Amino acid sequence: MKLILLFMLLLFHEVPLRAESSPEEDWENFKKSKCPITQVNLDYETSVTPEEDEIDSDITYYEKKCKQETLKNFSTLLSHFSKVDSLILLEECASAKVKNWKPLEEKTKQKIFTLSKFPKFEILTVGDSDEGISELTRKVTQVWQERVYTFSNFYHQRSLLWLGEEKEFTDEINRVLYTDMNEKRKTNLLRKLIQDLEASNQRIYHLFQYSSRNPFQAKSLYEENQRSKETMQRFLQNVSKEDEISAHQKEKLESFNSCLDNINLRGQGVRLSGFLGFWQDYEFLNELTPKIKGEKSQSIPKFLKKTIYNSHHFEGRLEKGLNACRALAQLKLNDE
């Protein structure tokens, strides 16, 4: 574990820590409290500097070359799920003949619908008469739910590394549960999956704890917390106004917004970036309607909002984020 921590510090910059602590103890405490506590000092300095994203630059270039408005709109939608796919579409649009625009529209629309299912990963439930297998099934489902509802809030889920790993876990769990195999083999595979999932969750938490990276290039933890709070509250307020949000969800969003006001941003160990994965994955939905031009293309943003806001994935992450916020707000933390 110490070697893993050392590797993370080297990879994500050396970070001043609050005090000597055991990563293993921190992890065990988090599993019990569900309260995310960072080990980064209040006055840390980050050496991260903004760099132009090469893909964004290419997208801007080919967007000017693409002369079909609907395909440009589709590219805007695609960019929130996969910038690479967005760029490929614009390149195809720039070189395609007019007669090929319609087939390209249909192909892209199908891709968008497929990608919009990403937030809806779901382990298919299956009954098993064996008590041992049933218990392991419940356990692996619980750890998987922690991954997609809790730990996805710690990172940008559209990162290919984490998203790919999440898909692999889900597919493998379903494969094991639905494959006809002897009890011993299924038991061993389920135990291995539980171990791998827990190890992956732990890695994500420690990256949150020790990394000085932040989306704002903030120069201190307090500044980062201020920016995180402003960003989250603006996002929560905007989402609560969406037509596709239910009254029940609106109440939770408003509670989350109020909860952030009750957290001491200078409190020892407080780091609100533990909620930013939730913002990063869903904030694009707020921006879709004004960005998409033409009445013809407006049906797709409406479809995406209805699909995603009503998914168990969105509901689960909102619930876990609110619970973590309440845990932080209730802590009696000393100022740094």
From TrEMBL:
This is Uncharacterized protein. It comes from Leptospira ognonensis.
